[in-house]
Design goal:
Helix content is about 40%, strand content about 15%. It is α/β, with parallel strands linked by helices and about 280 residues long. Helix 1 (about 30-45) crosses helix 2 (about 60-70), helix 2 crosses helix 3 and helix 7 packs across helix 8 (about 220-230).
Length: about 280
């Protein structure tokens, strides 16, 4: 099984390191399913675990961490603030609740889940997160699903540049403009739905071709592409064999021609909601 040392890290603008390949629990049922999946992930070498209040499985993630036997300072835990809790005081209260559910003393990375521009509360929310970071209860803060105008406003009206923007990103939605903005401002790009939720993308003939060339499956080729273009990536699975397989991407490299073939797949095709319009729960 892959070892911890196989997973490279990237450096956040705080100076802390984040594992470049982690484990996400979006759409994983709370309870035993989440707990068992996270325990398996930690056992095979994942050290970045990504959850959110909206996933309703923070408690199960916390149980898995507690039962894993791995020291807290060897794990990097991310959670996210839901739309209904935006605003300065609500955000402070929501963070406390997430921390309690996880059973942790601090969070490594705390994110605003969606900008919800129609509610116009994300600046006040982020200021609450700045306070949480100043108190040492979140080691880094950032955002998720933010577009360039949302990020520009944060940079103008708040003190701390987001460490991360977690966005939908896969070969059919490569977000090159947003990634360029991140690079310019020292914000790491973190990709969710990195395999396009396991849909038709995995059956594309390019991945069969590259898989045969490198002796890897389609998911491993795509995850390797994410790694090589500089993304933090958080695939999800509840199948132990796939959890291990998704981590087994550090013993080969895609060449420039391989990368070009994958880059050519970009179609701007979003699977999830448009962040400019999404306001569920707000």
């Amino acid at each position: 099984m892959p070892s911890t040392s196989n997973v490279p890290t990237l450096t956040l603008n705080t100076g802390a390191d984040i594992p470049q390949l982690g484990f996400g629990v979006f759409q994983v049922d709370p309870g035993d399913t989440t707990r068992d999946a996270v325990k398996t992930a930690i056992e095979v070498g994942y050290r970045l675990i990504d959850t959110a209040a909206a996933y309703r499985n923070e408690e199960s993630v916390g149980q898995a961490i507690a039962e894993s036997g791995v020291a807290r300072d060897e794990l990097f835990v991310t959670t996210k603030l839901w739309n209904a809790d935006q605003g300065f005081e609500p955000a402070l209260a929501a963070f406390d609740q997430s921390l309690q559910r996880l059973g942790l003393d601090y969070i490594d990375l705390y994110l605003i889940h969606w900008p919800v521009p129609s509610a116009d509360r994300y600046v006040d929310t982020y200021k609450a997160m700045e306070q949480i970071r100043a108190d040492g209860r979140a080691r880094a803060i950032g955002v998720s699903n933010f577009q360039v105008p949302h990020l520009q406003r944060l940079l103008q009206e708040t003190e701390i540049t987001p460490a991360v923007n977690q966005i939908e990103l896969h070969p059919q939605l490569q977000q090159s403009e947003l990634r360029a903005f991140h690079a310019e401002h020292g914000i790491l790009t973190e990709a969710y739905s990195p395999l396009a939720q396991g849909g038709d993308l995995l059956d594309h003939p390019i991945f069969a071709e590259l898989g045969e060339k490198h002796g890897k499956n389609a998911a491993q080729i795509i995850l390797r592409w994410h790694i090589q273009i500089g993304n933090v990536v958080i695939p999800k699975s509840v199948t132990p064999a796939r959890i291990a397989s998704n981590l087994d991407v550090f013993d080969f490299e895609l060449d420039d021609d391989d990368i070009a073939k994958i880059t050519a797949l970009d179609a701007g095709e979003r699977l999830g909601p448009n962040p400019d319009e999404f306001s569920a729960g707000a």
